[in-house]
Amino acid sequence: MGHVVRISCLVLIIFCSLPFQSPTEARIGGFTIEIIPRHSKLSPFYNHSVTLRDRSRSDAFRSIARAKRFHSSSLDTKYIESTIFPDGSYTNGVLAVDIFIFDSTDGQRVALTNAMFGCGHNNGGNLGSGLVGLGAGPLSLISQLGRNIDYRFSYCLPVTNSASKLKFGGDAILSGPGVVSTPLTIYSSDTLYHYYLTLEGASVGNKKIVNSQTASNEGNIIIDSGTTLTMLESSFYNDLEAVLRETISLETIRDPDGNYHLCYDQRSFSNIPEMTVVFHFNGADVPLKKLNVFRPISTDLTCLAMLPTKVLRIWFLQASSPIRSLLVILA
């Protein structure tokens, strides 16, 4: 979640040249837009030539890089130069102001006037067409929409190859069975673009693993939509992996690339009984099935979609099985 909305100038020109139909101002009543995940076959940027192993390898590299945190960005009223990832991705250009228009799923068009964004002229690396900031920083899209959406948004975690919804304002309000909530911790200064949660532990069946970071560190893990793998503090990860090994009781297979730590033959893994892994956050338990915890990295290998880290801990739920998952942020 970056702290600046970054969109390439080319995209902006195409975006603003759409037929103009008197859009309404963003309002507390809320609106919803459709989003397509990067790896979905529905995406116009989907690369059919990339193999499952290549994609899994790229996901691991990107997740590790994000755990090492973003480099700082320089920002003034005229010029932007940023190195976003430790892998060398970058963007530089100018800070601009324009009208942003969103196509809502109800057929209306919602406008954000005087929207500030970084217009990149020279971009490289793994940025795609740009980044949309959904953090708590002053220039994020959420902060600029601000009171018009009551600083509230939500998005679904879709199953593979399906579109999702990004909801703002009143559309993001949830209630009913299965809805849980947990406090957010937003630290000051350069971490405003992160939403921190407090991860107390995890359970596999009746075996519970306690996160030793909880007692001394409220807000010990961030939730991030841009990271494919969950990055856990090393000792907590090791304890969780040990319990999973004991529970699954299959012969492990080494990942040939050395990126993933716990892997099994995919056919054997698919035949084991369903198991539930529960992540325990402050006031909220999130149960996950095995297809949300493990992922196929090739045609014959399935691996734990988590890695240990000694730096920034990141939690991300992969919705690869048909569960109903929704993240709501109330800033």
UniProtKB/TrEMBL annotation:
Residue ranges that the Swiss-Prot or TrEMBL entry lists as coiled coil: none
Entry's Gene Ontology BP terms: proteolysis
Membrane-crossing segments per the record: none
CDD domains for this protein: pepsin_A_like_plant
Entries under SUPFAM superfamilies matching the protein: Acid proteases (SSF50630)
An example Gene Ontology CC term for this record: extracellular region
Keywords, ordered alphabetically: Aspartyl protease, Glycoprotein, Hydrolase, Protease, Signal
Protein's name in the database: Peptidase A1 domain-containing protein
Superkingdom: Eukaryota
Gene Ontology MF: a single term: aspartic-type endopeptidase activity
Signal peptide annotation: 1-26
Residue intervals of the Peptidase A1 domain: 1-331
PROSITE patterns named in the record: PEPTIDASE_A1
UniProt key word Secreted: no
Assigned protein family: Belongs to the peptidase A1 family.
Pfam families, A to Z: TAXi_C, TAXi_N
